Amino acid sequence: MSNFIRGGSLRKLAFLLLPEFSHLGLAAAIEPLFIANWLAQDRVFDWTILSVDGKAVRASNGMMTSVDGDLAAAPAAKTVFVLASFEPAHAARERSVRRWLKRLARFGVELCGIENGSVVLAEAGLLNGHPVAVHWDNLLGFQEHYAQTRAISQLYCRSGARVSCAGASAILDLMVAWMGWHGQGELAAEVAEHLLLGRVRAPEMEQRAADGAPSAVDAAVAEAQALMREHVDEPLSCREIARRVGLSLRQMERRFRDVLQCSVLERYRLIRMTKAHQLLQQTELSVTEIAFACGFSSPEYFCRLYRAMFACSPSKDRRQSTTAPVLRHRTPAGRERQPLRARVSDGAQKRAHVKACLFRSVSGLRADRTGAPREAARVAAVGPGRAQHVAHAGIDIERAVAKRPHRTR
């Protein structure tokens, strides 16, 4: 048992729960406080659970969580944690919440955003000029919306009376650090031992490897993916990426197959569609703007690919909710990820997809009018893997070349 004495200073705090908050996040924030009180055999920390209207709040897992009261129920709180996860925009725009948070800030209350709770604080203008730890899956949308803040991909951070946390397991690290910030360093270390945390992670630690664990074993694959992320709006050719990492295209294709079980083009397209998915759900940019921002010169082609991947059109995927389409970055065990081009529906969509690939490649044929046989020309334009599809689609390669306008030198 701990040898902490009774009679220490009591720190009062409050947790504001917003609809669709993370139930895990609430447990991860409160349990360390309970353990601290239990070890000290005293009320070192006293907390109150709040909702906007004083009624029970539904968590993202469907559980209804009772609260102690509404926004007026914790007038003596020195620290307020705002918990939000899915669909934070509605609560963030509620005037009563913004007014309440601004009043707390004027009185010097420490404000902490947990996961998308930082969105609520940023919407109130309370994080302007501050670094903000944002979950990697929400980072792009946060940067787009709140350019006055400095969004960072780390576990948690503290900036004056503002604290932010990316959520999930990082909340445990934050709570242990938070106790230390408020004069309970020894107690915090003992709490960490009881939580089996081992070594508490530093706030500046990255949330995840940039490309996920598999690519870490191959520097060339990791470098290629970094190039892909740097050139999303104006994509490089796969051959150019290979040249920049010092490999032939065939060598790079083999490495991508070995490490990521996909082709270079499939991986590049996944990276671009990941950005599109995040922008659609987290920003108010138009579908056309998002298509161009992700390197698609044709919004119609982008919409077809998006529908093939998510089974819904981009215009129907504008909310970050628990029922919205999910982008899986890794293939579930026992299931092989099919190439996106193979999942494009048959008929008109497949024909249009093949035509798009063909016309992107056909300009190279214009310089070489050697009268090559039709099949050789088809293979030269689209590669042996797609030549058969072009034939089945009924596309006349020579007519396609003839229709392309000549470029004068």
Account of the protein in words:
The chain is α/β, with parallel strands linked by helices and 409 residues long. It folds into three domains: 11-194, Class I glutamine amidotransferase (GATase) domain (Rossmann fold), CATH 3.40.50.880; 214-343, Orthogonal Bundle (Arc Repressor Mutant, subunit A); 348-403. The chain is 46% helix and 11% strand. It is built from 18 helices and ten strands. The chain has helices at 23-40, 89-92, 95-106, 117-123, 139-145, 170-181, 185-194, 219-230, 238-244, 249-260, 264-282, 287-293, 299-310, 340-343, 348-366, 374-382, 384-393, 397-403; strands spanning 11-17, 45-50, 57-58, 64-65, 79-84, 110-115, 131-133, 150-152, 156-159, 162-165. The strands form three sheets. A six-stranded mixed sheet has the order 2-1-5-6-10-9, with helices on both faces. Strand 9 and strand 10 (162-165) form a beta hairpin. Helix 1 packs parallel to helix 6, helix 15 (348-366) packs across helix 16 and helix 15 (348-366) crosses helix 17 (384-393). The chain is globular. The protein starts with 10 loop residues before the first strand and ends in a 6-residue tail after the last helix. Mean pLDDT is 83; it is low at 1-7 and 332-409.
